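Record passed on underneath.
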Amino acid sequence: MSLNVEKTMVIYGVAALAACALAGTLVGELLGAAVGVDANVGGVGFAMIMLVLVTHQLRRKGKFPEASEQGVLFWSAMYIPIVIAMASTQNVVKAVSGGPMAILAGLGALTAGFALVPVLARIGEAGEPLEPLEPLEPLGEHAVNEKQEA
């Protein structure tokens, strides 16, 4: 019985991922239509942001068990290959030669990213600094004997 419940929880994690992927695709398609592009604009990114927010909220409420996280972790390992595969289907040369809009969009995203670094750095509580590392000593016979005596 316990094994069945665990498998069900993994499926719930994959279902959360699938729901976020569908919602992200919808948002990306709507954004593409709004800017006049016949493509999904940022759907995978929106999906990942939604997944992070949804799973964070569920964890805080204690409604996202460890087994459900396994379903999400499996597919999160696939995120980079999926993004690379999606990017490889884009015709970058045609986009850049079609006008300055692609360059402006890239520069806008870069500027926004740099501008948001200080904002994101202020989120959360300040952590304690790490303890300084002790220099490594060569472990000769003398050093080993001293450590055993101490």
Summary: The chain is about 75% helix and 0% strand. The radius of gyration is 24 Å.
